[in-house]
Target: RADX protein
Amino acid sequence: SKLTNLGHLEMTWRSRVHFHPLLVRILHKSRLKYYGKPGKKMDMPYQAYFEVADGSGMMSMVLWNSLCPEWYHSMKVGTVLLLAKYAIKSSYPFKTHPTPGDSQMKRFATIEICLNVRDPPTEISIIPEEMVKPEWGLPEVKYRFITRSELDDLPHNHSCDVIGLVTFVGRAERARKREHSEDFWLYRWAHAIDGTSDQPFILELFATSQPDVFEHIHPMTYLVCTQMRVMTENPSRTVYLTTSNESQIFIKGWHKGQPYTKDAKVKNFIQWMESQSEADQIKKTVIGGYYPFPRLPDSFLKY
Model:
């Protein structure tokens, strides 16, 4: 069928009601958001953002309501979609934006693609990777992996991806989303090493929409975290990483077929791991317990 592209959509969307099909690749994926409120009758008040791209640039795509439980887990980073009968709306101004792996890619920020169960009922098709043709001009997924030796030089709130061997994972803890709120964030602390520094990555991992991964992080697994944010604790200048709205977490059993397996820094880490003694690394691992962070000073005077 006749296809359009994101660049053409941005120029013509106000003058059209129906749009030609789109062929795009998912580059980023947000956590699933529940926006139900007491007294409002909605069957499935869910929403998820994706950043999708074709040869012309990148745009936000929103998956709404009952389409979320049907499609959210099938739409992975790297998945190619054929979309028909979608809607176009002005962008929501307050949503978060991931940092693209390709800084040269054009971002169409004024509009977003809306996938709804009706008005109009969107038609979604997933194209298997082996059927994707080079002439479609779809961009590859790119990452911003850093090593532990590079972390201390990065500015506060910098976005990056990391891979490491888990040496510590703490128990799941809760924090109130707002003071006096009944809603909680669930998170846990983890340490991971990559052989480039004596210090580990300190990771604050909030439960994303991947409960099967979050609950099974354990020592000696290869952990990949994408779209992490650099946080600097003053005055100690302790640096740690925290998840963002677009973070994805992967452990052993989930790595196969992920786009990051082609990344040079991921390959370097695997080579380093193959040179290590598993028995020696196991002796250094810890699991569970209370992890006070940032650490308190060692004397009351300093405190």
About this structure: The first helix runs from residue 6 to 12. The chain has a mean pLDDT of 93. The chain has six helices and 16 strands. The helical segments are 6-12, 67-71, 148-151, 211-214, 264-274, 278-283.
